[in-house]
Amino acid sequence: MNEYTIVVPDNDVLSCLCGTNDKNLELIEEHLGVPVFTRGNELSVENDNPEICQKFQFIVDRVVDEVMAGGKNSEDIIHTVLNTQKPVNADEMVIMVPGAVRRVYPRTQGQAEYINLLQTKDMVFCTGSAGSGKTYLAVAEALRLILNHKKNKLIITRPVVEAGESLGYLPGALEDKIDPYLRPLRDAMEYILPVETVKRLFEAGIIEVAPLAYMRGRTLNNAVVILDEAQNATREQIKMFLTRMGENSKIFVTGDPSQIDLPKKSSSGLMHSISILYKIDDIGFMELTADDVVRNPLVKKIVKAYEHEKE
Q1: Where are the alpha helices (DSSP H) in 204-283?
Q2: I want to staple 219 with a disulfide (CB 3.0 to 4.6 A). Which of 26, 65, 207, 246 is the partner?
Q3: Residue 169 pLDDT exceeds 60
C-alpha cells in the first residue's frame, strides 16, 4: 500500500495539527477512517484512495492557513475544519482569490452551504445576523470572479436610508458621500487583498460603488453585483434592483431582517422578495443563524439572547 506524506516545516503548525497528547490526530484519523503517522515533521497516511489523500491534504492545508492567519486554539481550529467539510466537496470549501493575502474558508456548516450557493447560482439571497459572514463571503466570491476574469466588473450598492437616498447636501464627491455606508464592504476587501490592490481596482473602475437609487435605468451585463443591507430597501427598490440583471451577471443580496431602519410607513422588501421568489429553482436562498456568527464569541451570545427574546 502506498504512503501519502505531507511535510510540515513549521513546528507551531505541526503542534497545532497534532494537538495535546495527539488528540487532534485522533480526530483526523476518525474523520478519515485511516491511521495517521508522524515522523519528525512529516504526517502520513497509508492509503491508495485518492479521495482520502485529497481530504488529508485539504485538512492539513486548511489548518496551516488558520494558524498562519492568527488562529491559536488548536482544538477550535481542528473542530472547525472537520465539521465544515462533510456535505460539500473539498474543492468548494475554499474561495481562492488571485493575489489574496489569505484563502477564505467557511467557519460553519451554514457558511459552507452558502459558499456552494454563491458558486453555483446566478442569484443568491442570504439573511443573517451581524457577524454571520453573509457579506464577507459574498465579497470574497465576487473578488474571485473578477480577478479570475469571469466577470468584468464588481458593483456594490446598498440603500442609504439615513440620508433618505438624497445625498446632495453632503460634502464631497459621490464616493466620499457614500463611503461611510459602504465602508464594511471595503473593509472586507482589504482583509482579503492587499490595500494597494483594492485601491487599483477602484481607480480602474473595476469596482464601482453606488447608492441603490442610482441603479435605476441601468442594465448590468457581465458583472457581479452585491446589494448589502437589503432589509432597508423597499419592495419597489428590490424589484427595480433585481430587474437590472443583464447577461452573464451574478447578483448577491444580503441583509439582516432584525435591523430594519426604514420609516414606519415603508415596509422592507427583502423578506417580501424572498417569499415570492423562493419557488424559482435558479435562485439560491440561505439563512445564517447565531450558530454561524464567527466574530468575538460574546457576539454570538448577544445574537442568541435577542433571538430568544422574540420566542
Answers
A1: 235-242, 270-277
A2: 246
A3: no
What is the C-alpha separation between 58 and 283, in angstroms, rounded? 29
pLDDT digits (tens, 9 = 90+) for 229-239: 999 999 999 99
Query: Distance of CA 178 to CAs 162, 169, 185, 234, 268, Å?
Result: 11, 12, 12, 19, 21
pLDDT in tens, 246-270: 999 999 999 998 888 887 767 889 9
Instruction: Give CA–CA dist 118/122, Å, rounded.
Output: 8
Distance CA 193, CA 210 (A): 21
Q: What is the DSSP string of 111-127?
A: HHHHHHHHHH-SEEEEE
Q: Are the beta carbons of 206 and 116 closer than 8 angstroms?
A: no
Region 161-169: mean pLDDT is 47
Q: What angle do CA 16, 17, 18 make, to 5 degrees?
A: 95
Cell 469571469 locates to 150
Element (H, E) at 208: strand 207-211
What confidence score (pLDDT) does residue 72 get? 61
d(CA 173, CA 47): 61
Q: Environment class of residue 2 by beta-carbon count within 10 Å: exposed (0-12), middle (13-18) or buried (19+)? A: exposed
Q: Exposed/middle/buried for 102, CB within 10 Å: 0-12, 13-18, 19+?
A: middle
pLDDT at 136 (0 to 100): 94
> What is the gyration radius of the CA atoms in the chain, in angstroms?
21
Condensed to tens digits (0 to 9), the pLDDT of residues 10-57 reads: 887 888 888 888 888 888 888 888 888 888 888 888 877 877 888 888
Sequence letter at residue 40: G
Task: Find where cell 432589509 sits.
Answer: 231
Q: From the CB of residue 174, how many other CB atoms can be counted at a distance below 10 Å? A: 14
With cell 473539498, the residue in question is: 90
